[in-house]
Amino acid sequence: MDLVFRDAEVVDGSGAPSYRADVALDGGRIAAIVKEGAAAGCQRPTARRVIDAEGLVLSPGFIDMHAHSDLALLRDPDHSAKAAQGVTLEVLGQDGLSYAPVDDRTLDEVRRAVAGWNGGAPGDTGVDFDWRTVGEYLDRLDRGIAVNAAYLVPQGTVRMYAVGWDDRPATEAELNRMRQLVAEGLEQGAVGMSSGLTYTPGMYAPDSELTELCRVVARYGGYYCPHHRSYGAGALEAYAEMVRLTREAGCALHLAHATMNFGVNEGRAPELLALLDRALADGCDISLDSYPYTPGCTTLAALLPSWAHEGGPEALLARLRDDVTAELIRRHVEELGSDGCHGVPVEWGTIEVSGVTGPALAAFVGRRVPDWPTARRLLVEDRLGSTILQHVGHEENVRAIMRHRVHTGGSDGILQGAKPHPRAYGTFPEYLGRYVREEGVLSLEECVAHLTSRPAARLRLPDRGLVREGYAADLVLFDPATVASGATYASPRTLPIGIPHVLVAGHFVIEDGHRTPALPGRAIRRTPTA
């Protein structure tokens, strides 16, 4: 064998009680599992290398169901932000905006639109954008990345490609083109489709249009992952909308960063969970992900009303520069509650700048935005590239949702900015350290299942998410007594502790607590349905 973990406490991802065993790896697969007290005559496995795992937990690698590493995986081979957490697979293409499928025009527009999430604005030479289709992007990942990655076709990018930035229903020809783009993306290996329905231009799509695209997703056995239309004033209605829509389309539903934020939703998580329980009882195929923190993170521009974005980033900047139009935007943001801010008027004291693209604006990072004039200045001078933390969540909602039986873990980790949200570097050890060991919100076995087998099942992965013979050797070895997130709001890029070893396809990406040069990750393509 290549490697044996000797005397590990195996938490296998199924939710079943842990057990003590030797686990042997060979050729990138789990070759043998010999439990303590195995029948007489069953020899302990031997290998070229043996690691004493006494006192450590061996589990499947963690699956980040909501990642924004679309460019980070390509520009940063180290990628310790995720590898050091025990993440061995990330799902990209989130919130309806990513980099494939595109043509030259769309690529330039989407790079501007999501520079705050991912960098990569026009003029940024950190990545050679040498792809246009989903398949070509996945092929690019296959050249070697730190951890594995799956991809969702981004509905907002598809609409940008076929319709542009107009706030109107698609024509039949445009809808057919979008159907074709989604189908091609799924045929080329995407696992489903995402939307960002508080982001333009995806939010301009009516339910009828989304339903038609979800029918395509269902035909290929994929799932729909919406950032739905409101996490604030209309949150419950927005969740119900997605359930109705996917039920009509016959499509599996995975709710992105499912939470109940803003003052209007304090203590209302049980209402959301009751809604989902009723749908599950009716046979709907639903799952969700969340991160174990209360603040959210997005771009400053996302708070603006959708009408201000019509025509694209340059049109929005022109409106912000015009005093009369800027005053109308302010009224929607501060008084009426814009659709970009989930129907809730912005409370500037909750908005903290986490990153800027313009060096001259660096002094704003880590500070709260005091008022609209400051926000307007940032938007214009940073050309919409500023990212923010939005301190609007509620701990009791976070805890209630993470206990649900269809819950999975997703970091929603934005790696850009001088002070990113600590969830980018800390989500998975935060679950294990704080919510398992310190506070007992979840048992260890239950939590590991949330982070491994449940997301693997949603992704239809036949050989990942469990410690089983024949499965891919995507594994993490951690100390249950010490594992913890090192990332804080003050020092968000601090790596976790208590995770000495992480393997992807049997190769160490973290060894003795340090990142290796290995790049064994590859694109994980959709498993065809029968």
From TrEMBL:
InterPro entries (UniProt xref): Amidohydro_3, Metal-dep_hydrolase_composite, Metal_Hydrolase, Metallo-dep_Hydrolases_sf
Residues of the signal peptide: none
Pfam families, A to Z: Amidohydro_3
Domain Amidohydrolase: 49-509
CDD domains hit by this protein: D-aminoacylase
PANTHER family: COLLAPSIN RESPONSE MEDIATOR PROTEIN, HYDRANTOINASE/DIHYDROPYRIMIDINASE FAMILY MEMBER
Protein name: Amidohydrolase family protein
Species this protein is from: Streptomyces roseoviridis
Lineage: Bacteria, Bacillati, Actinomycetota, Actinomycetes, Kitasatosporales
